[in-house]
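yo

u said u wanted the structure for the complex thing, so here. seqs first:
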Amino acid sequence: MTDEERLEQWIGTLLRSGVIIAAAVASLGGIVYLARHGFEPAYYGVFHGEPQDLRTVHGILHDVLLLRGRAVIQLGILLLIATPIARVALTLVGFAIMRDRRYVAITAVVLGMLLYSLVGS
Amino acid sequence: MPLLSLACGVDIRYAIGASLVSVIATSSGAAAAYVREGFTNVRVGMVLEIATTFGALAGALAAALVSTSAIAIIFGLVLLYSAYLTLRPHAAMAGPAAEAATRDRVAVWLRLHSTYPGTKGPEPYTVTHVGGGFGLMFVAGVLSGLLGIGSGAVKVLAMDQVMRLPFKVSTTTSNFMIGVTAAASAGVYLHRGYIDPGLALPVMLGVLLGAFAGARLLPIARTLHLRWVFGSVVVLLAIEMLYNGVTGRL
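structre next:
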């Protein structure tokens, strides 16, 4: 197997585990949420925006520790959003091992923009 | 997203948030299989992701300032045109064109030429017009950020029609890229409170099941059928967008 093919296998494994973990965490939160609020009607016709603590990485983690169902679902969604970002980070490592400087630079630019979006903006 | 906002009456902003979640789930769920099988061109994906992530960030930040109806109308027209182009398959590059492409300086410098699994083992292919594809990818990124979609159709268009990649490589590489594009704007929308857990959870679980199933079909599917399915979906999406834009429902 070439380095290139090995990198492709790693990426495949990372993506698959990422979505499975994200789905498991979110489902767990869903069970907690439904057990507590399952019989309240849902209505999304009017936009209120999510409460402040479900909008940031810090706020979500804080509420997860209080075992709030919606926050645990949101953590699963955060893990889902993080999966492609982790894939880019893994690709960066792969290209570094192959000593492919051009692609290390290209991948670093993409990773930088993604991290800015999630944490910085 | 059109399904949520049209059929279920969900506010467009919640629909955008849930749509981004569905895009990331589709991309990661299906790409896992495609990358392992060698359909996806990871290098082409990485290079073009510079354009799409930059576009998506710009689009997501601009979304608050621009009228979405106008965008929807423009987008609908773009989709109709791209459906027309896809259904009229280009002849495979052969002879002088293929030879010229092997000398495409940018593609050679970036080592984009590759192979993909064909019926008789690995088939080599070449990549051309990297600059044009890159520009169209920026547009795809902006649309993605503005409307909360993956804009996979525009990405396929850029790789299939402009860069002349084989169709299965274009669709799988597009699928590989939409997750990163959507992740770029998802951060911005999360901070704005558009991502609702109660809505995103069922969307995410449903889409993952679909993506795992679809990924098993690709190696045995025929390219001509894929083109027709893809073309029909794009036409439906275009009509949807135009309708929404004109009636001002977006």
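The longest strand of chain B covers residues 114-118. Chain B has one domain: 2-69+91-223.
cya
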